[in-house]
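Service request form, structural biology core

Requester: graduate student, group of Dr. S.
Request type: structure prediction, single chain
Budget code: on file
Notes: please return the result as structure tokens.

Sequence provided:
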Amino acid sequence: MNRIRLLAIGVALAFALPAIAQESATASAQHMPTVDQHLKALSEKLDLTADQQEKARPILREMQDSMQKVMNDTSMTHEQAHEQMRSVQLKADKDLRRLLSDEQKKKLDELEAQPHPGMHGEP
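Core staff response, request fulfilled:
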């Protein structure tokens, strides 16, 4: 159950944040926030320290690069791509949680418990 919540927050953060993209950008780039946008959102919601932000940046960069690779891989079925993205998000969430204090983990749990509009085709 906890992994499902982790996945939910990862997906919510990856797709719910508005992407700043030019009109010529690809559709996938428009839906995925930059590493800096993702880090800013996490920092604001979890009150990350400068040290935590520094350590989180490569984790978020790796997650974004891996997710972009999955989105660009046309050889996978939708289900395979979904499972790959889920794996990437769970790994990033696990790595990020190692950096968080107990209080920050509680805040993250609260965020994960909230509904995430736009996921799974929901309005």
